[in-house]
Amino acid sequence: xxxxxxxxxxxxxxxxxxxxxxxxxxxxxxxxxxxxxxxxxxxxxxxxxxxxxxxxxxxxxxxxxxxxxxxxxxxxxxxxxxxxxxxxxxxxxxxxxxxxxxxxxxxxxxxxxxxxxxxxxxxxxxxxxxxxxxxxxxxxxxxxxxxxxxxxxxxx
Length: 156
Known about the structure:
By secondary structure, the chain is an alpha/beta fold.
C-alpha cells in the first residue's frame, strides 16, 4: 500500500511511522468521539522502547535534547493516529497538543522544549498542523522520561 501525502512528507524528513507503543497502565492509546480523536500522552521513547531523554530539564537535560524528545513524542502521537485511522491524510486539523516537561522548579523554557512536537506537526500537516497548546513543567513523568505529549485531532 502506498503511503499518503503526510507519510511521504515524514519519510522525506527521515521519519517512518511505526506500530504504536502499548499503554503503560489502565488506559487506551486513543479514543475517537465524533470527528475528534483524543490521543493519550506519549512519552519520549523510540520504537524499540529506549528513552530518548531521561531526567529533568534544568538539571542535566538540555533544551535541545528536550526538543528532540518532544519530537519523538510527536512521532509516537502520529503512530497512534495512524493506528486509529489507517491513514494520516484523514487528519483534518491538529487541534491541540499538551506538553509536559519533567523539570526543575526554576526551569522556564518548557515552550521551547515542546516546540519540538509543534514543529513536527506543522512540517507534516502544513497549516492544518497549527494548533492550540499547553507547555507545562512537572515534577516527574513515567520512567523518569524528560517529555510527554498528548493531542487532540479533528479527523475525517
